Amino acid sequence: MNWRNVLILSLFFTFQVFAGPQATTSKVKFDKQQIQIGSKKITVEIAKTREQHEHGLMFREKLAADSGMLFIFDEEMPLSFWMKNTYIDLTIAYIGKDKKVIDIIDMKGTSAMQTDFPSYPSSKSAMYALEMNKGWYTKNRIKIGDLLVLPKAQ
Questions:
Q1: Of 8, 39, 50, 134, whose CB count within 10 A is highest?
Q2: Rounded to 5 degrees, what are φ and ψ at 62?
Q3: CA-wise closest residue to 35 among 81, 93, 76, 120
Q4: Which residue did the predictor score with more confidence, 29 or 101?
Q5: pLDDT digits (tens, 9 = 90+) for 61-110
Q6: How many CB atoms lie within 10 A of CB 15?
Q7: pLDDT-based confidence at 18, cuts 50/70/90?
Q8: Which DSSP letter does residue 3 get?
Q9: Is residue 108 within 8 Å of 89, Cβ to Cβ?
Q10: Are the C-beta atoms of 102 and 75 separated by less than 8 Å?
Q11: Does the global pTM surpass 0.85?
Q12: Is 29 helix (H, G, I), strand (E, B) or coil?
């Protein structure tokens, strides 16, 4: 194999590693809704299915102000999130079945080359998780015990 073939193959595999997963992101779709947490109204993408839960905010390079992702689970249970292929710093609020915030945790974004991902577990069972830009909860004075208000269908 000559050096040109090696170079072409190397470029092909590099493209697959860096662009391959991003090319599949368009397959996972999320509905948007307006919700309220504390006294603040925000627009969120809703993650209800396993596929949506697994994909979350991966491969995003930014998140609009007052926007986030609400993960909804079928039942209350201990939850734990990680930041694989999530490039932006986030803050997560774990929310119980009673729709009260039980935890607010900062999560560090990762790089495409990173292989070690810390996990961010809830301190108790939760039914919802709301990811927002890092610092959003502090900036908007949202705290543990505040209520999540969802549209009637949720």
A1: 134
A2: -160, 165
A3: 93
A4: 101
A5: 898 999 999 999 999 999 999 888 888 899 999 999 999 999 999 998 88
A6: 11
A7: very low
A8: H
A9: yes
A10: no
A11: no
A12: coil
Q: DSSP letter string over 85-145? A: T--S-EEEEEE-TTSBEEEEEEE----TT-----EEEEEEEEEEEEEEETTHHHHTT--TT
* pLDDT given at position 92: 95
Residue type, 5: N
CA 98 to chain centre: 22
Angle at 115 between CA 11 and CA 19, to 5 degrees: 35
CA 137/CA 105 separation, integer angstroms = 10
**Residue 153: predicted pLDDT:** 62
Residues 61 and 38: their CA atoms lie apart, in Å, by: 27
> With the CA atoms of 99, 64, 136 and 68 taken in that order, what torsion angle do they form, in degrees rounded to the nearest 10?
20
Q: State how beta strands 67-82 and 101-107 pair.
A: unpaired
Q: Express each pLDDT in 110-145 by its tens digit.
A: 877 877 888 899 999 999 999 999 999 999 999 999
Closest Cα partner for 154 from 99, 102, 94, 78? 99
Question: Which helix or strand (DSSP H or E) is residue 70 part of?
Answer: strand 67-82
In the structure encoding, which two tokens stand for residue 137, read together?
């909860």
Task: Using alpha carbons, select from 58, 36, 55 the residue that is nearest to residue 154.
Answer: 36
